[in-house]
Amino acid sequence: MEISSKENTQFFSNNTILPVDRSSFKSESSASKGKQSCCGGIKIFLGALSFVYFAKALSGSYLKSTITQIERRFDIPSSLVGVIDGSFEIGNLLIIVLVSYFGAKLHRPRIIGAGCLIMSAGTFLIAMPQFFMGRYRYERFPSTINSTVSISPCLQDKSQSPLSALEKSQAKINAGCEKEAGSSMWIYVLLGNLLRGIGETPIQPLGITYIDDYAIEENTALYIGCVQTVAIIGPIFGFLLGSLCAKLYVDIGFVDLDSVTITPKDVQWVGAWWLGYLIAGVISVLAGIPFWFLPKHLPKPESRKGSSTSSEQSKFINDDNKEQHKSYQQQLKMAEMAKGKSLEFLSSPLNFLPSLKHLFGNPVYILYLCASIIQFNSLIGMVTYKPKYIEQQYGQTSSKTNFVIGLINIPAVAFGIFSGGLLMKKFRINVLGAAKLSLGSSFFGYLLLLSLFAMGCENSDVAGLTVSYHGTKQMTDYEQALFSECNSGCACSKNDWDPICGENGVTYVSACLAGCQASNGSGKNTVYFNCSCVGTLESPARSSSAVVGPCQKGNECPKKFLYFLVISVITSYTLSVGGTPGYILLLRCIKPHLKSFALGIYTLAIRVLAGIPAPVYFGVAIDTTCLKWGSKRCGGRGACRLYDSSALRYVYLGLTLVLGTVSIFFSVAVLCVLRKRSSPPDEILSANGERGTCGTKSRKDNFVNSDHLIQTTYWPEKETRL
Asked: 146's torsion region: left (phi>0), alpha (psi -120 to 50) or beta?
């Protein structure tokens, strides 16, 4: 039986493997020699993939930088902005499984190139509402809009107003409702982001596995670290672009900028958010061009030609399992030859479920997946609303916030990711060491995040919202407290938001609610006089003046903002060090023919269970801390104008820390499982093969039996063959 088995094996290798694999590989290799000589191999692919990662990271980070701009432009709450942000992940969800499972058998570079074109189309679509909506309208009292007529904000004498209060209100509603349909244009932003998600889908699973297939094994971690580092450079430019566009008025080129009466410090300010999307779309088109000229296959390194598995993967795939899979492979091929069927049977969709069963039967994979899902919930929610948090907590403008994040915070992340890849290569860290490094970075990162609770600013003094008109702490029913004895004779609306800063350092919701009787100047230089409510905190008998715009935060706030930046940079670096080791842990514990599929399922789970819900429930939680909502022209709640700083800090940082802590427990479980499955060096080097690295003999037997269907569908280079 042993001799006949060897003869059958010899017959099979001579008659089947040579014609199908080697000859086809030779012809394929010779046909693509010209292309490979032009493209320069794996390093050219590495450069092209890095540029694509840069392009997709730039457009994605630019979206994060325009969150508050989109919220104000379309007058929508944070929870709805979270849905828009999550639509990118929904786009990934639609095709991620198909691209990951079947894309590995097609021309991977060209699929990535096609994805870039789709991604650019979605980016252009996001910017389109700007060209179909009406001009941006913000709330301003008539006397501040370059008017030569002095109108009293406190309309005690109705004859002072060109229209009666009722007529003015009705005219405002009618004028606003003509353009109210423009507020639904946010749907195009959602659809564009959805299209971006579809185009981005093939980049990660196909690009990373292409590198892992054709790079020297010891260089894989460094290459992946380089790609992820370049990907982090994208957000640097994305946030800097967001900073530049936030300085420009939204309707720049369409209106006279001298007529704009608000400044970037105003919460109603909207920058030229649409301009950056046009730039990002052009970059995405350029990034996809090289992939149309890259070959389907690259020559494998000499060290990996004789084996389809890496040295570390072989530790998690037992020797007897390999022999059995070879036997199954040979028997199946003989059976298919006898039936005259094509080898394409092996790539049948029927193999999808067994492959899925194998992945979820791998305890390391499933535990690491759970840890990643929860950690990404924490990180995605934190990154999405970080600009809003800095603006509201420390009183910074959108432009400065994006500049700080792009120039200080993001480089720390890039350096951390690169450091992780460098450590893996320099110290030749194995899978167990990668798990330890990933766990340690998460633990110390979230520990540092705890200190940010002590670095928040107190609420600004806003009369009727955070303090009463008499200087005491505010009551629960804040809307009723907007009215006081000092403004009881004024015809004011509680829905307006046109803040002014009194000389007593208190912000008032509007000049009318401050009881101002007169004004001087126009536009940004308007000064209000005889404001009956401004003097009540110190001297009720004396009326005082006020200027346009809210008052600045307290004197301690700039110093706390500096401390926040320092801790935030250190935290970002610490958390990022574990990024590359985590990728290596994921790749090395999965069989080579399932790498693309495993990365696809991993990405799918992150998109569905973290990328989509995290921005939404973070947004809902942040909305609960709003003290003053804006009002739409035709009625209904608009965007939030003022947040409770203390509540915002506890909700934002608290959610981030709770989720991060839970993910650490799963990371500890991953480390425990890896310790049990790993063996001492003397067992690895033993020749009798009685013990393997995956556990006991019974575990090995179960492992082999459960993978029967998967092993029969494997052959070398399955991922890169049609």
From this structure: left
Question: To which residue do tokens 């209100």 refer?
Answer: 169
Name the nearest CA neighbour of 664 among 254, 370, 383.
Answer: 370
Contacts of 683 (CB under 8 A, 6+ apart): 691, 693
For residue 23 the two structure tokens come to 């000859």
| Domain 39-142+184-299: top CATH class | mainly alpha
Q: Which residue in 66, 129, 140 sits closest to 384, CA to CA?
A: 66
Nearest to 383 by CA among 54, 62, 64: 64
According to the model, what pLDDT value does residue 46 have?
A: 85
Contacts of 622 (CB under 8 A, 6+ apart): 78, 385, 388, 643, 648, 651, 652
How does DSSP assign 43-58, residue by residue? HHHHHHHHHHHHHHHH
Q: What does each C-alpha distance from 141 to 137, 174, 185, 229, 507 come to in angstroms?
A: 12, 18, 27, 49, 16
SS3 597: helix
Could you tell me the CA-to-CA distances from 7 to 15, 25, 327 in Å, in that order? Answer: 12, 25, 13
Would you state the pLDDT for residue 467?
Answer: 84
Task: Tell me, yes or no, if the two domains 39-142+184-299 and 356-459+560-677 fold the same way.
Answer: yes
- How many residues does this entry show for the chain? 722
Amino acid identity, position 159? S
- Domain ranges across the chain: 39-142+184-299, 356-459+560-677, 485-552
Torsion of CA 126, 132, 133, 134, to 10 degrees: 150
In the prediction, which pLDDT does 425 show?
A: 85
**DSSP code for 463:** B
In this structure, what token pair is assigned to residue 389?
């948090």
Instruction: Report the SS3 class of residue 527.
Output: strand
Residue 653: how many other CB atoms lie within 10 Å: 19
How far, in Å, are 163, 414, 423, 517, 519 from residue 148 at the CA level?
A: 16, 54, 68, 16, 11
pLDDT, averaged in runs of 10, over the chain (722 residues) = 43 40 43 42 83 91 91 89 90 78 76 90 93 79 50 55 41 49 78 92 81 74 78 87 93 81 83 93 91 78 56 48 47 41 41 82 92 95 93 90 90 86 88 92 94 89 83 56 80 82 86 84 79 66 75 85 94 92 86 81 84 93 90 77 92 96 95 81 39 36 33 30 26
Rounded Cα–Cα distance for residues 66 and 274 (Å): 9
- Please state, in angstroms and rounded to a whole number, the distance separating the CA atoms of residues 88 and 84: 8
pLDDT at res. 183: 58
**The predicted structure's pLDDT at residue 82:** 92
Residue 271, helix vs strand vs coil = strand
CB-based contacts of 539, cutoff 8 Å, min separation 6: none
User: What amino acid is encoded at 314 in this protein?
Assistant: S
* CA 213 to mean position of chain CA atoms: 27
Q: Which residue has the tokens 């940010």?
A: 452
Nearest to 486 by CA among 498, 499, 469, 472: 469
What's at 571, amino acid-wise? Answer: T
The answer to whether 430 and 424 have CB atoms below 8 angstroms apart is: no
pLDDT reported for residue 150:
56
pLDDT tens sequence across 502-538: 888 888 888 888 888 888 877 677 888 888 888 654 5
356-459+560-677 belongs to which homologous superfamily? MFS general substrate transporter like domains (1.20.1250.20)
